[in-house]
Design goal:
Layout: H1 2-27, H2 31-58, H3 66-86, H4 90-110, H5 119-159, H6 165-169, H7 173-205, H8 214-234, H9 240-261
Length: 271
């Protein structure tokens, strides 16, 4: 049981790493990020193949419930690897594997066939991973906001030619803007993965009513705000004060979401 649980978690972590590097390559094209994303995705395919082969040889033929969803996830990974080999469609590959990650999570933790003494430990580990990823994302957003505020302070002093000690001790505006962007680039995919795992967990523990939880709605607003930040930076070339202000405003969605979870309005207070 322990080995099986460990194997489940290992696949999830490797898949998450693949998506993080793929997202990084989309935002800022890099050969090393692309290679790492592909390497981790191939590792996911290999471990899925091993696990699926073991499941089918144990009770053959068996392609229902748990195994049908696992097979579906495996087909998605296989297809994206083939497409990536034949064509360069990076965004399609990322989107397809984000879908595959969601199905893999629901496959491993929520399938009725998986109901066993293993289910509860897996769900506990799932919520632990969900919370860890969410807090990492919020930490990156917080650090990004600090950089954005410092950028606005430095820009204000420069425009008024106030060459004081504060300005001399600040990093360059270019560095602050780059750090803010890269921190958000890390935070968005982490929050995206955390939300996928959180929805999987909530569906099992709370049922379909979890969609009425204001914390869920608030998390989507946070994700949308920072996704718009990245879109404006990458697609429309925003920079400078306008982008810094958007980063600061986006952080208010994080604060509101945090207050919701601590005001007794969400089931998240029970975690």
């Amino acid at each position: 049981m322990f080995a099986e649980s460990w194997f489940y978690d290992f696949i999830i972590y490797v898949y998450a790493l693949s998506l993080l590097f793929a997202f990084s390559d989309l935002m800022q094209p890099s050969r090393s990020s692309r290679r790492l994303a592909l390497s981790f995705l191939m590792a996911v395919w290999f471990f899925q193949t091993v696990f699926f082969a073991w499941r089918t040889t144990e009770e053959f033929p068996r392609l229902a419930g748990l195994d049908s969803l696992l097979f579906y996830s495996w087909v998605l990974v296989t297809g994206t690897l083939v497409i990536n080999r034949l064509y360069r469609m990076d965004f399609f590959v990322f989107a397809a594997n984000l879908l595959g990650f969601g199905f893999l999570a629901s496959n491993l933790y929520l399938s009725p066939e998986a109901a066993s003494p293993l289910t509860e430990p897996l769900l506990s580990e799932l919520v632990f991973v969900h919370v860890t990823l969410a807090f990492l994302a919020y930490a990156f957003f917080s650090l990004s906001t600090v950089c954005a505020v410092l950028y606005l302070v430095g820009d204000y002093l420069l425009k008024r030619k106030q060459w004081n000690r504060t300005l001399r001790r600040l990093p360059s505006l270019g560095s602050l803007q780059l750090f803010s962007y890269r921190l958000n680039m890390l935070g968005v995919p982490l929050l995206m993965l955390a939300m996928i795992l959180g929805i999987v967990w909530a569906y099992e523990k709370v049922g379909g009513d979890f969609w009425y939880d204001p914390k869920i709605f608030g998390s989507f607003i946070v994700l949308a705000a920072y996704s718009v930040y990245l879109y404006q930076r990458v697609a429309r070339g925003w920079n400078g004060r306008r982008l810094a202000w958007w980063g600061v405003i986006s952080f208010f969605t994080v604060m509101v979401n945090y207050l919701i979870s601590n005001a007794g309005l969400s089931f998240h207070q029970w975690l």
